[in-house]
Amino acid sequence: MSAVMSAGRVATLVGDFDRSPAYAGLSDCLRMLIGEGRIPLGARLPSERDLTVALDVSRTTVTRAYADLRERGFAEARTGAGTFTRLPGGRRATLDRGLAPLPGTTELIDLNCAAGSAPTGLAAHYEAAVAELPAYLGGHGYFPAGLPALQEQIASAYAARGLPTDPDQILVTPGALSATAIAAQAVTSPGDRVVVDSPVYPNATSALASRGARLVTSPVDAAGFDIPGMVATVRQTAPRAAFVLADFQNPTGHVMTTDERATYAAALRRNRVVAIVDEAHQALSLDAVEMPPPFASFLPDAITVGSASKQFWGGLRLGWIRAPRERIEQLTSARLGLDLGAPLLEQLVLARVLADPEPIASVQRDRLRDQRDALVAALHERVPDWRFRVPAGGLCLWVELPAPVSSTLAAEAERRGASIAPGPAFAVEGGLERFVRLPWTRPAEELRAAVDVLAASWDAVVGGANAPHTGRVRVV
Q1: What are phi and psi of 341, to 5 degrees?
Q2: Which residues partner with 225 through β-bridges?
Q3: Pair type for strands 224-225 and 82-85
Q4: Does the pTM of the predicted model rise above 0.90?
């Protein structure tokens, strides 16, 4: 059944749109809202007459705006039914074949990839960046260290968190995973040991192992970090590097306290272990909690990785490395063996965003908080015997099932219309079949629908279902 958008709701969403000319401003605003998912696909827009009254504009303004939406492929008229939202090329145009669900399935609710749609306001920065781009077209376009203006913005953000940083300590990369791979390339050799959490973000471990490193796991409990165990692992295994997820650890959502950071950093220093610190989720605090100082405050030799993709939008494929000066040349040499720099247009966009991040960041946090709360409420109602703690931020819940059947549950859920990542995807050495990761990055109504699917799938699994493994690529 299609959603119905009331005139009042649409008027609230479009707000104070550009009225010169009004029809174009209204069309552009509606197009952005549809593209961002704030107006759902397939939703029926309000009648021209009702929207005219709600916006206090002429009927011609709304008529021309709807016509413009249809011409651009963002709406379609259905005889006798009204105007309905769509995307150019349809839903299939937004799917990546590598991430696609079961063959022929396009309506699957994706709780596998922990990334949501772009926040309101980001498109305007892209448009401004495109206008700014011609000034750079006369050059070669390569900035191996990053666009200077962006390096300055990132360095300033670290300084504001109490970690003094100069722009020349920043390397801009095509995403946090690229930054992790560069760090691994720079500081490890084939056969070196690298300590990682268990559970841990699997794409990061792939990047760390790309140099031929041997991964050594240190368990992270459902209740928090096992700092004594982590210290013991470092002492006993003599690793070259340690991958540290201290801020909203993926997938558990744990935050390492100030004392825990100091203790673990001291152990790494004593054993001459290089810390590769992943701060991709650091800025995603959703509750009124004070975040601890950056891990590098306790370990000056640490290499810190950051991400715009998690904080703002997955399509903004930019990350960065913050490192001590004595490591910059080593890191730069390593990155030139992988790429010659990050895309210039995206760097122009991010520089504009970071110049005043709060308007976009606050909208993003509010949306994620509402979605988290909706997911938590739905799980409590539909599957009350599933256990989890609610993180104060980040992007996902780490849910413990009553039985070790997460792979079977994931396959059964996908067959019924929802994709999730089972626990073994986060286990370097296997196991974790009692766990699933559930991100709250989809709209609230999708999350509730997904939980309904999961509840039905759970009933089927405990009733004896043995769904087959799909064998598709998972980007978690």
Answers
A1: 140, 170
A2: 220
A3: unpaired
A4: no
Task: DSSP letter for 45, please.
Answer: P
**Running DSSP on this structure, what letter comes out for residue 55?**
H
At 457 the three-state DSSP class reads helix
Closest CA to 202 of 274, 251, 252: 251
User: What are the residues whose beta carbons fall under 8 Å from the beta carbon of 334, sequence distance 6 or more?
Assistant: 182, 183, 185, 186
Question: For 220, phi and psi rounded to 5 degrees?
Answer: -110, 120
CB 394 within 8 A of CB 253: yes
| CA–CA gap between residue 419 and residue 410 (Å, rounded) | 7
Please report, as a single letter, which amino acid is at residue 361. A
pLDDT tens per residue across span 124-137: 899 999 999 999 88
What tokens does 400 get? 């413990």
Q: In angstroms, rounded to a whole number, what is the distance separating the alpha carbons of residues 273 and 58?
A: 67
Q: Give the DSSP per-residue string, 163-232.
A: ----GGGEEEESSHHHHHHHHHHHH--TT-EEEEEES--HHHHHHHHTTTPEEEEEEEETTEE-HHHHHH
- Closest CA relative to residue 247, chosen from 452, 392, 30, 131: 392
Q: To the nearest 10°, the Cα dihedral for 131, 134, 139, 141?
A: 40
- pLDDT value at residue 467: 46
225/248 Cα distance (integer angstroms):
11
CA distances, 165 to each of 183, 414, 468 (Å): 18, 46, 51
Question: 288-341 pLDDT, tens per residue?
Answer: 888 999 999 999 999 999 999 888 988 888 999 999 999 999 999 988 877 888
| Measured CA distances, 350 to 37, 237, 346 (Å) | 21, 40, 6
Average pLDDT rounded to a whole number, residues 151-180: 94
Query: How would you list the strands of the sheet with 435-439, edge to edge?
Result: 109-111, 418-422, 435-439, 396-400
Q: What are 271's two structure tokens?
A: 């054993």
